[in-house]
């Protein structure tokens, strides 16, 4: 008799802490029941590293100071992680730079990463999703998203992409449940 109230108490406690008994894949599906965000099947990290220009993005709080010239530079590290350096010019013309690190989460494809820009004496308590959901065969552009569809970026090796390429990229985003209207063009 006593085990039922204990079970209910433990279940309520777990629910309050948002501890889930549902498989993690279930959280990749949004509230409307849309299919999960999917990544490219394979990402060659050695081809991916280097300088990328931000062509478009879903506006976010951590880039609000960026007015133009936004780039991301990725460098492979000996420990298997990736050094990330994001740069942009602010409204005063000054260079804004954020240094971080990325780690591979899905080693089967290398297309699911976590990125952190906050470090306390080497400890990184905050990591954000970085999923490569679209990629040019020649690694000339990339569509970056997150499983919750809150963030998205269009990156390219050159400061601009033609209209047909952008159409192709936005169709990838739309197939993954993103709204094209959520994106804004980035000034280079």
Task: Please provide a written account of the structure.
Helices cover 16% and strands 32% of the residues. By secondary structure, it is an alpha+beta fold. The protein has one domain (45-185): Calycin beta-barrel core domain (Lipocalin, Beta Barrel). Strands 1-2-3-4-5-6-7-8 form an eight-stranded antiparallel beta barrel. The chain starts with a helix and ends with a strand. Mean pLDDT is 86; it is low at 1-33.
How are the SSEs ordered, and which strands pair?
Elements: H1 3-16, H2 45-48, E1 50-57, E2 68-76, E3 82-89, E4 95-104, E5 112-116, E6 128-135, E7 141-145, E8 152-156, H3 163-175, E9 184-185
Antiparallel strand pairs: 1-2, 1-8, 1-9, 2-3, 3-4, 4-5, 5-6, 6-7, 7-8
Order of helices and strands: HHEEEEEEEEHE
- The structure class reads alpha+beta
Q: Can you summarize the main beta sheet?
A: 8 strands, antiparallel, barrel
Shape: globular
CATH architecture: Beta Barrel
Helix proportion: 10-25%
**What do we call the CATH topology?**
Lipocalin
The count of strands amounts to 9
Spell out the CATH superfamily. Answer: Calycin beta-barrel core domain
Count of individual helical segments: 3
Q: How confident overall, as mean pLDDT?
A: 86
Give me the Rg, rounded.
19 Å
- The low-confidence parts are 1-33
Could you give the distance between the termini? Answer: 69 Å
- Report the β-strand fraction as a percent range: 25-35%
Overall tally of structural domains = 1
CATH class: Mainly Beta
Give structural attributes.
188 residues; Lipocalin; 8-stranded antiparallel barrel; 3 helices; 9 strands; globular; disordered N terminus
């Amino acid at each position: 008799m006593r085990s039922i109230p204990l079970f209910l108490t433990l279940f309520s406690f777990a629910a309050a802490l948002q501890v889930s008994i549902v498989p993690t894949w279930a959280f990749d599906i949004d509230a409307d029941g849309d299919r999960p965000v999917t990544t490219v099947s394979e990402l060659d990290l050695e081809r991916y590293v280097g300088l990328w220009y931000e062509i478009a993005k879903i506006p976010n709080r951590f880039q609000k100071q960026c007015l133009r010239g936004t780039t991301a530079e990725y460098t492979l590290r000996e420990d298997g992680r990736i050094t990330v350096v994001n740069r942009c010019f602010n409204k005063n013309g000054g260079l804004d730079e954020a240094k971080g690190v990325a780690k591979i989460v899905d080693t089967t494809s290398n297309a699911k990463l976590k990125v952190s820009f906050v470090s306390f004496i080497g400890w990184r308590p905050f990591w954000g999703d970085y999923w490569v959901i679209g990629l040019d065969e020649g690694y000339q552009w990339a569509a970056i998203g997150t499983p919750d569809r809150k963030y998205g970026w269009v990156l390219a090796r050159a400061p601009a992409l033609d209209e047909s390429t952008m159409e192709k990229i936005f169709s990838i985003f739309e197939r993954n449940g993103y709204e094209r209207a959520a994106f804004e063009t980035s000034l280079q």
